[in-house]
Design a protein that fits this description.
The chain is of the alpha+beta class. It is built from 3 helices and 15 strands.
């Protein structure tokens, strides 16, 4: 099936209910999301952005890894770090709204918390369900510039997050 066939098969929507779909595992597919946010299939970079957007909407994380999910298929893929990048953010009053490399916008808060990984405290933000975006260095530096850091907390207006490795 060609990329164009896949695009035509699924009508673009905000998101698919992948959390509700439970098809049986069909195997693995040689798709890799690299740490830099690029998507690869069988060693070749996927250049068609509309296909990447489609795949990103069909992505789900289960306890044993990342999957592309449809109502009838479940294919395991490889993700080097996190599947998305939070490339920038806008201040909307006291609210921070992040933009991802998949053209999604998420508002920092309880549903989309900021968390940190490792000794270097690499920041990430939840995009949806159990899918996270790594905050890029440029966005992180902008964020630190407006934040208040107190002991082991990072504060943005009325919101506060632990500034230590997270388990979520």
């Amino acid at each position: 099936m060609s990329g164009a066939d896949l695009e035509n098969r699924f009508t673009p929507v905000e998101g698919y209910p992948v959390e509700l779909w439970n098809p049986k595992l069909c195997g693995e597919i040689d798709i890799v999301i690299r740490a830099d946010g690029s998507w690869w299939h069988e060693g070749a970079r996927i250049e068609r952005q509309s296909l990447i957007f489609l795949f990103a909407k069909l992505l789900r994380y289960d306890d044993d890894g990342y999957y592309l999910i449809t109502p009838v298929e479940k294919l395991k893929i490889t993700v080097e770090d996190l599947p998305f990048l939070a490339v920038d953010f806008d201040r909307e009053g006291e609210t921070l709204v992040f933009s991802t490399d998949q053209s999604e916008r998420v508002t920092l808060g309880a549903e989309h918390p900021l968390a940190f990984d490792g000794d270097d405290l690499w920041p990430r933000i939840r995009v949806r369900h159990n899918l996270w975006a790594r905050v890029t260095r440029a966005a992180w530096y902008r964020l630190i510039d407006i934040a208040d850091v107190q002991r082991d907390r990072i504060i943005f207006g009325s919101q506060s997050f632990d500034l230590k490795p997270s388990v979520i």
